[in-house]
Hints:
The chain has one domain. The chain starts with a helix and ends with a helix. The longest helix is centred in the C-terminal third of the chain and has 29 residues, at 207-235. With 292 residues, the chain is an all-alpha fold. The chain has 14 helices and no strands.
Amino acid sequence: MRLQDIFELVLLASVWGASFLFMRSATPEFGAFGLVIVRTGIAALCLLPLLLISRKTAIVRQHWRPILFVGLVNTAIPFCLFSYSTVLLGAGLASILNATAPMFGAIVAYLWLKENLSSLAVFGLLLGFCGVAVISSVRTGVEVTTALLPVGAALLSTCAYGIAACYTKQFLSGVNTLAIATGSQVFATLALAPFALYFWPDTMPSNDAWLQVIALGVFCTGFAYILYFRLIANVGAAKAITVAYLVPVFGVLWGVVFLSEAVSPLMFVGAMLILLGVSLTTGVVKFRLKVA
């Protein structure tokens, strides 16, 4: 990769890592539904002009049903679940659990798309879920049994990401990515609107919370999508997806710097097990060994 591509990869990881920081701070004032609808609504407003300029709106109309499904499973549902879990687990732990998404993607691809899952990949899955077990034992200000619920919500989110990835491959292969991204944000916003209106907080969120959710929508969603698709175009999807290994680094870093979150030895061990497990499951370690 060029130096510029590496810079953009690190920038994307830092932006996506910051999303957990903003969710941790703003969700208590907005609520999960309120925060996500503002986030997706802002992201849609950022992406719509690009869609109109590129004259790809007809693609959204043509494939609206599968794009709607992706909007629900890849955005609306996991964003709400992660907003809830991040408040209880903290930005660092939530970002680490987010790294399990490729593992669930591999499991769903094996069960649904009948893709091969090597013995090394299975070992990686076991390692990764051992890491999740370690993470679940980390004290986060709540009792261990109580922490299992937000951990479960985070894992449901990453499982949804895996389902959405396989669904996209099956039903939206070859469809313009900008159309999928924009349409999914629009449909997610529309789907969440009734819930957001019903659960909208009685007390108006503070100016700080509004600034955080605007940053979440503009930078961590709209800008991040654009940057991600640019990376896919420049270096390919296989290299662009490696951003998943960097997001937990920044998620933990921003949590420590801005929220004074602690990093325990167990948290570090769990993170290493998850990242190693993901690298084995996705074939990154095998690829690197071949190159060497």
